Amino acid sequence: MAMEFLFSANKTFSLNYFCEKYDAAKSSVSEDLFHLNTTFKQNGLGEIISNAGATGGAYFIPKITTEKTQEFLTDLKGKLQAKERVLPGGYLYYSDLIFDPKITNMLGLIFASKYAEKKVDYCLTMETKGIPIAMATANYLNAEVVVARREAKVTEGPVVTINYVTGSTRRIQTMSITKKAIKPGKRILIIDDFMKAGGAAKGLVELVKEFSCSLAGIGVVIDSQNPENKMVNDYFSLLKLKSVNELTGEVDIIY
Amino acid sequence: MAMEFLFSANKTFSLNYFCEKYDAAKSSVSEDLFHLNTTFKQNGLGEIISNAGATGGAYFIPKITTEKTQEFLTDLKGKLQAKERVLPGGYLYYSDLIFDPKITNMLGLIFASKYAEKKVDYCLTMETKGIPIAMATANYLNAEVVVARREAKVTEGPVVTINYVTGSTRRIQTMSITKKAIKPGKRILIIDDFMKAGGAAKGLVELVKEFSCSLAGIGVVIDSQNPENKMVNDYFSLLKLKSVNELTGEVDIIY
């Protein structure tokens, strides 16, 4: 029952459904729901909202607590600031963190909590490092993932392709989404691991329009302080990368 | 408690840990473990194995039931055989399924059940479509994911790169893994969405050796019947693609 709620956000389950499934009386299902709600809240996962009325029913909303978010992000910040992560060119290596399911699940829960009320249909991301985070977020939001690819693939069928300009290096790049992947009129949440100038995010926003869908939001794990003006206005980032000192290995991240 | 077990396979939790965490007596924790085990088994997720002895403790092993696996794969096979999935060139479109967390979680549970006793440290996959399945599998196995990339990226630092020959088109391709991503002496499970001749899988196996690690297994969602002889011997596939008829849109998949 816990699993069904947890990964079916916003989906209303009728009391009858559980009564039949577990061959139980309404009163005991109601009691179980009450305990489950307490457990979800205590563990900072979210809450179960019960509808009164003739049929009855309940649905789950992911809602991580502020303390849990803070604790997690402080820990993640610490891990990101390890000197050995600094690469030539002042880049920061963090793929190991992004591809660790324990960390990704938490990132997904944080984004899902932020956008829980937006009734997101698709989490859209750009290959490659955005994928695990988009999957985890979609899992909690009961949504599907769509991946924009750098090259159109023969195995994906007809695609919608756009050109976009990377905000930092001003190069022209291409991204494609399979036409079959998105139905029109849906709500799309853009999720990515990193934002520098926001060129890729802007490209994704344009693709959302091309598919006649609406934008539910843009969530990124880390954005960089420079450049200050991004190519998209309204986005939500968890951590801000202030500076990377290639010589000393010092990494300054603000939470 | 359910969540902690579910996503920490093979990790032993002491009874004391739960007693302290939930401020409960050993007897009631034991009773909860008993109920949890029953629930996991009933839902075909796995089981909790309790260690007797002075300290006591329990760990979870993912173990989906044969019936659940059959039911899921029969359903997946039906979805894959939809005519509209056939693309020019006889390719089969299935990204929407691979990127649906509900489906991916089940695929992950099936692979995790198969390799639960192998004490897997890393699930290794090739970008892009293998990623969601590797993440879901790693989630149930309490492992991390490593992604081999087609091009080395400046944000990934020093890489180990190998060339491999695609078995079907005999082209030479490149794949790279960041050096930092894998520690020597670990156990690696290779996970991918599709295998034709097995060239990419063979490349991944060679990378496992380059990192002085051992191979726990190779799991793919779909392999094709042709060519019959693959470039790797020992692999586990869930579905076999027999034929795709581009003219009629007929897809023949064997389970």
Automatic annotation (TrEMBL), chains A, B:
UniProt-listed InterPro entries: PRTase-like, PRTase_dom, Pur/Pyrimidine_PRTase, PuR_N, PurR_Bsub, WH-like_DNA-bd_sf, WH_DNA-bd_sf
Signal peptide location: none
Keyword set, alphabetical order: DNA-binding, Transcription, Transcription regulation
This protein's record includes keyword DNA-binding: yes
GO MF annotation list: DNA binding
Family matches, as Gene3D superfamilies: 3.40.50.2020, Winged helix-like DNA-binding domain superfamily/Winged helix DNA-binding domain
Residue ranges annotated for the Bacterial purine repressor N-terminal domain, each copy included: 4-62
Domain Phosphoribosyltransferase: 116-241
Example GO biological process: negative regulation of purine nucleobase metabolic process
Subunit-structure text: Homodimer.
Family: Belongs to the purine/pyrimidine phosphoribosyltransferase family. PurR subfamily.
Name of the featured protein: Pur operon repressor
Native species: Alkalicella caledoniensis
